[in-house]
Amino acid sequence: MLICLIREIAGSAPAASRQIPGTVFQTKEFTIGSAPDQHLQAPDKDVDPQHAILRLTTRGHLVLTALGPKGVIVNGKRGTRVLLYPNDKLQLGATTVKVEAPSGPSEQFTCVLRVSDPYAPDETSPAAAHTSVQGSRFTISFWSWTLTLGVAAIFLLVPMGAFLAPPVRKLLRSTPLVPSDALWSAGPLHATHRFIGNDCTSCHVTPFERVHNSECEKCHSDVQHHVDVRTADIALFDQERCETCHLEHKEPASLIPRDERLCTDCHARLDKLKRGAEVQNAADFGSNHPEFRLAVLSEDAIVAPGQWQPQWLDSSNPATFKENSHLKFSHAQHLNPKGIKSPTGERVLQCGDCHRPNSSGRQMMPIRMETQCSGCHSLHFDEHDPTSGVPHGSLQSMFRVLREHFSRQYLESTGPTMRTQTDRLRRPGQEAVQMSIDEQRRARDWADIQSLKMASELLEKRVCVDCHDVTRVLGATGFDQWQVSPVRLTQNWMPRARFNHAAHITQPCTSCHNTAERSKLSSDILMPRIAKCRECHGDAGDASKLSSDCVMCHRFHLPNRGRFDPEPLKARASR
Amino acid sequence: MGLESRSMHQSFINFRHYRYGLIAGVASVVTLATYLLDRPRVPPNGGTWLGYTLGTIAALLVIFLALFGIRKRSFRSTIGTAIGWLSAHVYLGLAALLIATLHSGMHFGRNVHTVAYVLMCLVTLSGCWGVYAYISFPGAMIQQRGNLRRSEFLRQIAELDSRSLELAEAISPRITQLLAEAARRTDLGGGNLWKQLRSRDESTLLLGIGSAPRRSSLVSNPNQRALIRTLAQIRPGRTSSEAALASVQKLLELAGSKAALLQRLRRETQFAALLRIWLFLHVPLCCALLAALCIHVVTVFLYW
Questions:
Q1: Of A302, A318, A484, B109, which is the most buried if we count CB atoms within 10 A?
Q2: In the beta sheet, which residues pair with residue A346?
Q3: Would you say the pTM of this structure is higher than 0.95?
């Protein structure tokens, strides 16, 4: 549509007499408002920046549509959508717009709008009125309330729903981007507890109370205590909670506390806390830790013969500071750098030839005759019979094998004295021939004598006696006259500590077990002393060495101490 | 006399010889030293004894800082002077952020606790902007305003417009219309907050008035440039007198003066907006912080 706008300025001469020039707009939408970019601009506080739009319908009607809530005033009547006809008057604040039908020279136009307004820019004009922030639509208090209520809704009210109403709990927690009580989490869970997910109330059962031990116990039901729960020492741990040491929601996430004060609070002054404490005071590894205490397997031959128990060794007394494994063994001889005799000739042995790590690499496998020694230490006894060999581990088995061997020898007449009886014996594929009682006795006696002779040689002269303590029993005869002391090699020298060989694999064995190459006796103790460890390991805070806290070697929860009771002592007393 | 003259120059920065600056500084140093020297059994966090202590101090400080909002509105209050409160508010606010940071142990996550901390950072940042604005803007405003009030600016602009119209009427109705439209469509720099801050001249000019074969068009008229260009292109006809030419020259000068005035008015509006905008952040964020702080404290112990 083509609209001609004619403006009259109040106070000037009559427009008609002055050939007022019109303004012509060709547009589909003729805009009216107070903003400068409107086709018809009327700066007035009663006029919105975008006040109304004038359109031409397909039937040729002019339609004025109000854009704001103020509406439009045509011929004194307020409306939102008004059809305009010639001679209608549109009121825009102080400005009046008259609609004129095109006629004469203005016939080409859709309509002519004759505008008359007093123009006087002053502070009441809408643009000027908005030149301060206060005039803006949203006030400080509006934003304050919006933000405050928003924060309260997102972080308290909605999550509180998950806390108070179990039915909506799951929905809130499982729906992404919906606030739940997970927003209250102080930090991520430790990786081992991640499976709990957002289920805060699985541990935080009672509001405003710390997590109870019993909540931990739901899963960790068999955790053992530090001291024997049947002794009075348990009183030292009254009121201790799982969470005293095992803190969740912390970063970096660690459930195992490394701070040595958790141990040294008591262990630095244990002698004062407990009379006759089994362990000495220790405050740190580098400078305030007692010498390693070794436990060696020992047999109390009088009270409990045959029962081997770990016994603490007194390192200050050289007379008793030895292992009594009943094995004869010289590390020096076996580690001779020139080599040692073997079935395949001279052979230089390494530590690892006998001491082999277990599958985890942490500990060494036990030394066994069958696997480690028998490669060189053969148990053959008859040089004429390469298949002859006594079993290891039981004297009775050995005697039985010897007697079987010599009996067979007698029966097969391989023995030099048996030739005359050859015809009387049953041979495979031939008729059995019954031996007479006399012959039987003779055969048995011969086998026994030969066996005893061989046993005596093995046990006292060349094979068994090489490694074992063999004693003769006073007054006993025959096969009962010998006794071999059982060998018990100590496997776990430090029952209170953990050592990981795999972690030390870069070091040669002898850098720690440095007396092994010189040790001639099996009673020598080849375990390193604390000074050796301190060459590399320092205090927990030591920057120059490997920082070593208590839990690097020691554990709090010790086996066979009794369950870590979830309830404190007082509760148990009242039960 | 000497004392009075000294107190005359006292601002919230150097109030009572930086009394609160010193207090906040000492508090910060002590807190920082304690944090660095403390050897907690677990990595530093809000749950150690130092964490709880710093958290309590920070929370009390936040409440004290928020009370400034009440104190500054109660003119009758005799609890300290307003400037003293502002000085304490500024310095202790900075110390509070440090204490809260140490309280957090630098552990952040997607939780209400971190939201409270972030809000505190934003409040402090907006506060710092406020301090900067209060120190630097008033001087700049006075300088560029040249001792004129806003209403005076508007009055002078209106006067220039009416003088232009008077001159134009003597030349031709077309130029009268042009100038009337230019005056009407002048952007005085108001509008919403964003427009005030952006301070862009959105004045427009209606061209093609009265030339029926040509359509009218609206062009943007920043700093009256379009008007000046249009006026400068007027080719007075043979009939036009020397006087008409002089009038057009005068119109150009008036348009230039108006552009200068408009620029100053717009800058004035922008300064005023900048000076107040930070409060639009500072106060609502502070309210949100108080809410988040309460939720933080409650929920930490709710799921202890």
A1: A484
A2: A341
A3: no
Task: Using an 8 Å CB-CB cutoff, list chain A residues near B112.
Answer: 155-156, 183-184
Interatomic CA distance for residues B169 and B188, integer angstroms: 24
Give A439-478 pLDDT, tens digit per residue: 888 888 999 999 999 999 999 888 899 899 999 888 888 8
Q: Using the beta-carbon criterion (under 8 Å), do A127 and B191 form an inter-chain contact?
A: yes
Q: What is the pLDDT of residue A133?
A: 46
- Residues from chain A that touch B288, judged by Cβ atoms under 8 A, are 144, 147-148, 150-151
CA A412 to chain centre: 69
A134-159: average pLDDT: 83
**C-alpha pair distances (Å), A534 with each of A263, A294, A505, A512, B258:** 20, 17, 17, 11, 87
Residue B100: predicted pLDDT? 92
Residue A118 has pLDDT above 70, yes or no: no
Spatial CA neighbour of B142 closest among B264, B257, B45: B264
In angstroms, the first-to-last Cα distance of chain A is 97
Which residues of chain A have a CB within 8 Å of the CB of B290? 148
What size, in residues, is chain A?
A: 575
CB distance B188 to A127 below 8 Å = yes
B177 and A7 within 8 Å at the Cβ level: the answer is: yes
Which residues, other chains included, contact A155 with Cβ-Cβ below 8 Å and sequence gap of 6+? A179, A183, A184, B112, B115, B291, B292, B295
Interface test with A, best of B103, B178, B188, B220 (most A CBs within 10 A): B188
Cα gap A403→A455, rounded to integer Å: 10
Structure tokens at A252: 């970096």
The token pair that represents B218 in the structure block: 């609206």
Closest residue to A140, CB basis, from B176, B185, B284: B284
Helix (H) or strand (E) holding A140: helix A140-152
pLDDT for B289 equals 93
Strands A537-538 and A546-547: parallel
**A30-47 average pLDDT score:** 81
Determine the straight-line distance between the first and last CA of chain B, rounded to whole angstroms: 60
Q: Measured between CB atoms, which of A25, A122, A200 is closest to B154? A: A122
| pLDDT attached to residue B29 | 93
Which of A365-374, B63-72, B202-211 has the least mean pLDDT?
B202-211
The percentage of chain A sitting over the pLDDT mark of 90, rounded to a whole number, equals 20
At A531, which amino acid appears?
A
**CA-CA distance, A533 to A292, in Å (whole number)?**
10
- Provide DSSP, A73-93: EETTEEESEEEE-TT-EEEET
Cis amide linkage into residue A252, ω under 30° from 0: yes
Please give the Cα distance from A48 to A70 (Å, whole number): 8
CB contact under 8 A, B204 and A37: yes
Q: Which residues of B76-96 are buried (b: 16+ CB within 10 A; e: fewer)?
A: eeeeeeeebbbbbbbbbbbbb
Which of B119, B174, B186 is nearest residue A21 as measured by Cβ atoms?
B174
Chain B residues touching A20 at Cβ < 8 A:
173, 177
**Which of B42, B113, B210 has the CB atom closest to A186's CB atom?**
B113
